[in-house]
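Why should sequence recovery work at all? Because a backbone constrains its sequence more than one might expect. Tight turns favour small or flexible residues, buried strands favour hydrophobic ones, and helices have their own preferences. The token representation captures these environments compactly. In the example below, the structure is given first.
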């Protein structure tokens, strides 16, 4: 039986790459990633971008009200035979409680996938990517800030879902193809494909 899927993983774990691969195989899933939507606002002069600009630049959490509004619109535009692949959301306990309530009210079920990846390797990967892409915002200070926010605010969400048996754990410390094969195998075990 299909369910909505929520992705988790430390920055640099390859979560976005795995999301792309999942979407190629699972056509009935629609991708909800508020980060991309919010960054798209940058190209136009608007009050919403002005409101979130500093949070985005400083890698802070965007106001829940903004993210909840986007999710609410997205959820209500889905057709009956469509499912969500959710990323860059449920990053705080407040977002988790909101999401759980929306799932209950809309009679939807979900499973989380946690891409488990060592922090040290995540830092290496993020620094290498910054150097390759000439990104000024990806320096050791900004990376450490983002990872500390992840540890403080997102890890408790992951632990909660793990304790509720709502989480599949995938070892992300391998080749892209290996991680994807393991993900698909675990989804099949749960009868989600």
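From this structural description, the recovered sequence reads:
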């Amino acid at each position: 039986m299909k369910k909505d899927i929520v992705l988790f993983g430390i920055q640099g774990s390859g979560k976005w790459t795995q999301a792309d691969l999942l979407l190629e195989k699972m056509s009935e899933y629609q991708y909800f990633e508020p980060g991309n939507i919010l960054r798209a606002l940058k190209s136009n002069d608007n009050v919403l971008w002005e409101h979130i600009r500093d949070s985005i630049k400083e890698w802070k959490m965007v106001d829940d009200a903004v993210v909840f509004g986007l999710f609410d619109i997205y959820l209500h535009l889905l057709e009956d035979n469509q499912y969500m692949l959710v990323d860059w959301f449920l990053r705080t306990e407040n977002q988790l409680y909101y999401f759980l309530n929306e799932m209950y009210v809309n009679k939807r079920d979900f499973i989380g996938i946690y891409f488990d990846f060592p922090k040290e390797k995540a830092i290496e990967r993020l620094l290498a990517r910054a150097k390759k892409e000439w990104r000024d915002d990806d320096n050791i200070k900004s990376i450490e800030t983002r990872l500390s926010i992840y540890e403080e605010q997102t890890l408790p969400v992951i632990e909660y879902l793990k304790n509720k048996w709502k989480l599949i754990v995938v070892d992300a410390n391998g080749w892209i193809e290996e991680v994807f094969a393991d993900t698909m195998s675990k989804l099949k075990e749960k009868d989600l494909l």
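A few observations help interpret the result. The mean pLDDT is 90.
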